[in-house]
C-alpha cells in the first residue's frame, strides 16, 4: 500500500483530502505545519507529499527545501496546494523542483488523477531501481569472471582444497573432475615458483602470515600462465589456524605487456642513440630529474661519470635572456589542463664555457584530476641549425636593404621626373587654351602626347617594381564599371580623332550598377589595353569594346571585357611572350610605335592579383582581340548618392574671389597652381614649406589650402596636423586639399588621418581640382552659417533640446547619462584595440553612433566612427585604427567639456 503525507494547516481541507485518498485505498498520514510535516516525512518516509504553501513555523517552500537537503527524504516527490493557482507561487514551487501543483479548493477528480499519476511514476522508478540492483549484482559476478579472479579454500583437517569455476578455468581443469592432487599440481609450477609457494604456505600455516605472490606455471591444457595468488589463514573460535583461503587471479596478459614494454623501452633507448637526443624525466612530485647519461654526453658534452653537478639547478645553465621565458612556459603548460605537448628553444651553457642552442620538446603526464605529475622530454643540439639560420637572416636583411634602396631610388627618380612633368603637362594644357596658330597647336599637342607617354612609362616602371617586391596592395572602393570605361575612353578622344578611328562600345545591361574594386588598378588595365589598341591601329581603323556579365552570385560578379582592334596584329609564335616584361615583337615595333614593353606584363600581373585572367587572339595585318575576366565584389550599399560634378562652365564660385594658399617646395609647381587658380578667378599666396604656410595662415584669412606632401623643414602631413590640433577655430577647420603624385589608398588614408579633406593627384586635372575646391568651400560656408561668429564649439544640442519640450530636467538627465556612459564605451574601444578584439571594437563603435547625432557632433566625428566600425568589421586598414581612435578620443574629450558646461548651466536654471 502506498503512503501519502498531507501537510495543511487548515483542518477542514486536510481532512477532506485525507478522506478522498483513503477511499482510493491509500495509507494517509497528516501534519498541521511545515516543521511537523518534515518530522513526519523523516519518520514515515511516505511515497508522496501533498503540501500547502502558506503555513506557520515553516512554510511549504521552506519545508521542501529542508526535505531536499536530507538524504533520506530528498527523493520523495511533492505536490503543492496553491490558493487560486497564484502564478508566482506555482513558478517558485516548480523552479524549486516540485512535481506538480493543485489549486484550492481541491477538485476530487483532479486530486485523484494527479496522485495516481505520481504514484505510478514512483512505482516505476522503484521497479527500475530494483532491476538495476539485480543487474549490478550480475555485472559484479561477470566482472570477476572476466577479470579471471577465482576463490580457493584449504582445510588442514581433511587436507582438501576447493576451487571456484574461475580457478578451474585458469588451471585448465573441469569442475566435475575435482581439484587435482597436490603432487600433480606442484609439478605444474617452475622450480622458482614452486619454492616460493612452499615457503609462503609454510609461513601461513605456522605463523598466520598473509601472502601475495606471483607464480609461473604450465596448466593442465599445456598453456603457459602467470597467476597472482593471495592467501590468508582460516581460524576457529579458539583462534587456531584450521586452514587457509584466498583468491587466484590470472595475470598472464599483464606479464606479456610488461615484457613488451621492456622490449619497447630497449628499442626506444637504441632509437635515442640513433637520433642523438638527450632524454630526461622530471618527477614533479619528488622534484627528481632522471637523465640519460649517454644522451647528455652527446648533446651537451658533459662527462659521462659526472654529467651535471648533483645539486645544481637546471636553470643555472640556461642563458640569462631565456631563463624567464622558459620558466614562464613551463608554468603555463603544467597549469593548463588542455596543453600536454610542448617545444621550446634556448641557449645552454656547455662545459666548454660557450653556449649551445637547444631544442627541448616533450609531453606532460597528468593524474586523473588533470594535475601535472611528470614532464618527459628530449633535448637536441641545434647549434649548427641556428648558425645557418642566422646566416640566412643576415642574407635576407641585406637583400631587403637592397630592395629598400631600390624602392627609395625609384621613388626618388619618380619624384624627380614627375616634378618637371607636372609643369610641362600643366602649362601645355594652359597654352592649348590660348589663341595659337595651327602649327603651334600641333607642336603643343606633340609636347602633351610625349609627356603623357613618359608619365605612363614612369608609372609602369614603379608599378612593376611594387609587384615584384610584393608591395602592391589592392584597394576596395565603390565604382561604376561602365562609367570607369567611359572615363578612360574620354582621355583618348583626341588621339581617336587624330587617327580618324571609329569606336564601338557595348555594355551588358545586367551588370550591377555599383561594384567594389581597385579603381586605380582597373583604370590602369583599361588604359594599357585601350591605349595599345589605338596605338597599334593605323589611321581609319576601328576599336571595339564589349563588357559582359560572365557570372554572379549574392556577393560577387565576374565580368568579361573584350578589347578588339583592326591593327597590325601579332605573329602566332610571339603570342606566348607577349605578357613578358619589355616584350615587343620585331626590332622596328618600339621604334615606330614607342612604348616600354611593360604595359601588358603589368596588366597580366594586376589581373593575377585580382584573381582574374587574360587571353589574346591575334592575326598579323588583321588585328588583335584581348579578353580579360575580372571578379568584383558587389556593393553592400543599396543607395549611394553621387556628388554632382561641377564643371568650369558652371556658376562656379562664390560672389567674391576665393583666397587660396598654395604650399609646395617646387617653384614650377607653385607657378602652375597659381596660373590655374588665376584662370578660375581666385587670389592666391604661395609658401615653400609647411612652416611658412602656418606663419601665413596665422596672419591672413584664407578660404582653402593646396598642400604638397613631400617638403623640407615641415612636410604637408605635419603642417596639417599642426593646423588641426594647435590652431584655433576657424583657422583650424580650414579646408585642405593634398597635392600628391601617390594616389594609393594607403597615402589617401594617411591624408584623411591627419585631417586633410581631399586630395588631387599630380599632374593636376583642372576640372577635378575646381570641383573639389568649390565643393569644400561651399560645405564650409554652410557650416559657418550654422555657427555663431567666433563660436568654436563642436556640440550642437538643438536636436536634444527640441525633444525636451522646454523641460530642463529632461535635458539634464540626458546629459548626465551621456557623460556617464559614453566615456565607458571609449574605454571599451581602447580595450578592444589592445586585445585585437575586432568584433568587440566594431560593436562598441556602432553603439556610440546614436549619441553623436543626439549631441550634434560634426560630420568629421561621424566619419571617424564609421571608419572604425568598417575597418574592424572587415578587418582592413588595421594599422590606421590606433590613430583614428586617438583622434576620436580627443574630439570626444572636447565634447565632454562642452556637455559638462551645458549641464552646469541647465542645473543652475532648474535651481533658480
Salient structural properties:
912 residues, alpha/beta, Rossmann fold, Beta-Lactamase, five-stranded parallel sheet, extended
Distance, first to last CA? 81 Å
Superfamily at the CATH H level of the largest domain? Histidine kinase-like ATPase, C-terminal domain
Shape: extended
Helix content bin: 40-55%
Mean pLDDT over the full residue set: 83
Structure report:
With 912 residues, this protein is of the alpha/beta class. It has six domains: 3-138, Rossmann fold (3-Layer(aba) Sandwich); 147-255, 2-Layer Sandwich (Beta-Lactamase); 274-381, 2-Layer Sandwich (Beta-Lactamase), CATH 3.30.450.20; 473-634, Heat Shock Protein 90 (2-Layer Sandwich), CATH 3.30.565; 659-786, Rossmann fold; 798-911, Four Helix Bundle (Hemerythrin (Met), subunit A) (Up-down Bundle). Helix content is 50%, strand content 20%. The chain contains 28 helices and 27 strands. Strands 16, 17, 18, 19, 20, 21 and 22 form a seven-stranded mixed beta sheet that branches. The protein has a five-stranded parallel beta sheet with strand order 2-1-3-4-5, with helices on both faces. A five-stranded antiparallel beta sheet has the order 7-6-10-9-8, sandwiched between helices. Helix 22 (745-754) links the parallel strand 26 and strand 27 (758-761). The longest helix is centred in the middle third of the chain and has 51 residues, at 383-433.
Amino acid at each position: 500500500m502506498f503512503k501519502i503525507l498531507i501537510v495543511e494547516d487548515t483542518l477542514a481541507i486536510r481532512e477532506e483530502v485525507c478522506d478522498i485518498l483513503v477511499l482510493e485505498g491509500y495509507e494517509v498520514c497528516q501534519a498541521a505545519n511545515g516543521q511537523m510535516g518534515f518530522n513526519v516525512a523523516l519518520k514515515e518516509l511516505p511515497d508522496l507529499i501533498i503540501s500547502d504553501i502558506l503555513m506557520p513555523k515553516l512554510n511549504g517552500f521552506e519545508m521542501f527545501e529542508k526535505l531536499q537537503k536530507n538524504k533520506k527524504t530528498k527523493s520523495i516527490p511533492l505536490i503543492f496546494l496553491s490558493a487560486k493557482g497564484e502564478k508566482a507561487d506555482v513558478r517558485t514551487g516548480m523552479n524549486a523542483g516540485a512535481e506538480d501543483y493543485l489549486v484550492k479548493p481541491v477538485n476530487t477528480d483532479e486530486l485523484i488523477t494527479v496522485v495516481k499519476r505520481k504514484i505510478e511514476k514512483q512505482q516505476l522508478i522503484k521497479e527500475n531501481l530494483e532491476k538495476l540492483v539485480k543487474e549490478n549484482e550480475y555485472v559484479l559476478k561477470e566482472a570477476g569472471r572476466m577479470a579471471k579472479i577465482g576463490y580457493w579454500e584449504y582445510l588442514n583437517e581433511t587436507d582438501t582444497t576447493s576451487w571456484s569455476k574461475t580457478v578451474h578455468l585458469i588451471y585448465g581443469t573441469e569442475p566435475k573432475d575435482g581439484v587435482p592432487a597436490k603432487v600433480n599440481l606442484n609439478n605444474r609450477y617452475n622450480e622458482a615458483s614452486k619454492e616460493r609457494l612452499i615457503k609462503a604456505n609454510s609461513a601461513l600455516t605456522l605463523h598466520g602470515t598473509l601472502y601475495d605472490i606471483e607464480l609461473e606455471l604450465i596448466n593442465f591444457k599445456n598453456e603457459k600462465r602467470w597467476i597472482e595468488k593471495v592467501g590468508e589463514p582460516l581460524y576457529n573460535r579458539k583462534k587456531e589456524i584450521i586452514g587457509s583461503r584466498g583468491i587466484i587471479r590470472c595475470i598472464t596478459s599483464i606479464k606479456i605487456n610488461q615484457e613488451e614494454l621492456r622490449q619497447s623501452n630497449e628499442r626506444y633507448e637504441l632509437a635515442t642513440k640513433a637520433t642523438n637526443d638527450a632524454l630526461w624525466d622530471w618527477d614533479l612530485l619528488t622534484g627528481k630529474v632522471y637523465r640519460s647519461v649517454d644522451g647528455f654526453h652527446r648533446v651537451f658534452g658533459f662527462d659521462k661519470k659526472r654529467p651535471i653537478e648533483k645539486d645544481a639547478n637546471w636553470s643555472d645553465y640556461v642563458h640569462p635572456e631565456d631563463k624567464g621565458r622558459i620558466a614562464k612556459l613551463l608554468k603555463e603548460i603544467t597549469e593548463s589542463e588542455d596543453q600536454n605537448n610542448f617545444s621550446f628553444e634556448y641557449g645552454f651553457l656547455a662545459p666548454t664555457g660557450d653556449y649551445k642552442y637547444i631544442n627541448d620538446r616533450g609531453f606532460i603526464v597528468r593524474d586523473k584530476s588533470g594535475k601535472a605529475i611528470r614532464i618527459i622530454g628530449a633535448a637536441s643540439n641545434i647549434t649548427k641549425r641556428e648558425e645557418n639560420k642566422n646566416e640566412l637572416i643576415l642574407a635576407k636583411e641585406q637583400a631587403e636593404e637592397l630592395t629598400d634602396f631600390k624602392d627609395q631610388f625609384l621613388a626618388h627618380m619618380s619624384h624627380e621626373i614627375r616634378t618637371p612633368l607636372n609643369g610641362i603637362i600643366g602649362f601645355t594644357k594652359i597654352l592649348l587654351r590660348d589663341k595659337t596658330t595651327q602649327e603651334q597647336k600641333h607642336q603643343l599637342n606633340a609636347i602633351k602626347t610625349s609627356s603623357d607617354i613618359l608619365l605612363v612609362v614612369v608609372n609602369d616602371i614603379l608599378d612593376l617594381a611594387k609587384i615584384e617586391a610584393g608591395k602592391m596592395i589592392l584597394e576596395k572602393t565603390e565604382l561604376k564599371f561602365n562609367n570607369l570605361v567611359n572615363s578612360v575612353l574620354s582621355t583618348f578622344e583626341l588621339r581617336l580623332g587624330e587617327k580618324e578611328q571609329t569606336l564601338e562600345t557595348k555594355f551588358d545591361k545586367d551588370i550591377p550598377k555599383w561594384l567594389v574594386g581597385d579603381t586605380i588598378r582597373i583604370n590602369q588595365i583599361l588604359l594599357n589595353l585601350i591605349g595599345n589598341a589605338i596605338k597599334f591601329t593605323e589611321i581609319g581603323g576601328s576599336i571595339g569594346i564589349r563588357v559582359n556579365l560572365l557570372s554572379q552570385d549574392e556577393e560577387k560578379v565576374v565580368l568579361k571585357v573584350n578589347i578588339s582592334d583592326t591593327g597590325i596584329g601579332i605573329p602566332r609564335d610571339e603570342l606566348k611572350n607577349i605578357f613578358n616584361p619589355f616584350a615587343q615583337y620585331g626590332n622596328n615595333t618600339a621604334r615606330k610605335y614607342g612604348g616600354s614593353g611593360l604595359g601588358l606584363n603589368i596588366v597580366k600581373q594586376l589581373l593575377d592579383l585580382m584573381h582574374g585572367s587574360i587571353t589574346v587572339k591575334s592575326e598579323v595585318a588583321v588585328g588583335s582581340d584581348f579578353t580579360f575576366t575580372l571578379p568584383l565584389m558587389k556593393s553592400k550599399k543599396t543607395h549611394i548618392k553621387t556628388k554632382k560634378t561641377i564643371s568650369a562652365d558652371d556658376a562656379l564660385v562664390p560672389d567674391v574671389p576665393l583666397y587660396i594658399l598654395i604650399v609646395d617646395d617646387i617653384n614650377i609647381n607653385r607657378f602652375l597652381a597659381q596660373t590655374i587658380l588665376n584662370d578660375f578667378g581666385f587670389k592666391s599666396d604661395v609658401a615653400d614649406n609647411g612652416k611658412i604656410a602656418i606663419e601665413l595662415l596665422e596672419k591672413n584669412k584664407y578660404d582653402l589650402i593646396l598642400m604638397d606632401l613631400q617638403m623640407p623643414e615641415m612636410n604637408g602631413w605635419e603642417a596639417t596636423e599642426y593646423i588641426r590640433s594647435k590652431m584655433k577655430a576657424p583657422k583650424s577647420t580650414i579646408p585642405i586639399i593634398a597635392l600628391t603624385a601617390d594616389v594609393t589608398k594607403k597615402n589617401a588614408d594617411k591624408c584623411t588621418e591627419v585631417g586633410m579633406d581631399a586630395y588631387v593627384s599630380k599632374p593636376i586635372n583642372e576640372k577635378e581640382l575646381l570641383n573639389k575646391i568649390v565643393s569644400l568651400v561651399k560645405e564650409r560656408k554652410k557650416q559657418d552659417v550654422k555657427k555663431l561668429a567666433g563660436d568654436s564649439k563642436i556640440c550642437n544640442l538643438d536636436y536634444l533640446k527640441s525633444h525636451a519640450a522646454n523641460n530642463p530636467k529632461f535635458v539634464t538627465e540626458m546629459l548626465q547619462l551621456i557623460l556617464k556612459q559614453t566615456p565607458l564605451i571609449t574605454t571599451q574601444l581602447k580595450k578592444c584595440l589592445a586585445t585585437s578584439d575586432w568584433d568587440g571594437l566594431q560593436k562598441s563603435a556602432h553603439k556610440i553612433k546614436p549619441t553623436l547625432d543626439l549631441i550634434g557632433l560634426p560630420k568629421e566625428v561621424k566619419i571617424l566612427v564609421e571608419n572604425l566600425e568598417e575597418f574592424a568589421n572587415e578587418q582592413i586598414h588595421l594599422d590606421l585604427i590606433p590613430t583614428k581612435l586617438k583622434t576620436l578620443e580627443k574630439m570626444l574629450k572636447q565634447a565632454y567639456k562642452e556637455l559638462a558646461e551645458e549641464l552646469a548651466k541647465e542645473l543652475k536654471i532648474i535651481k533658480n
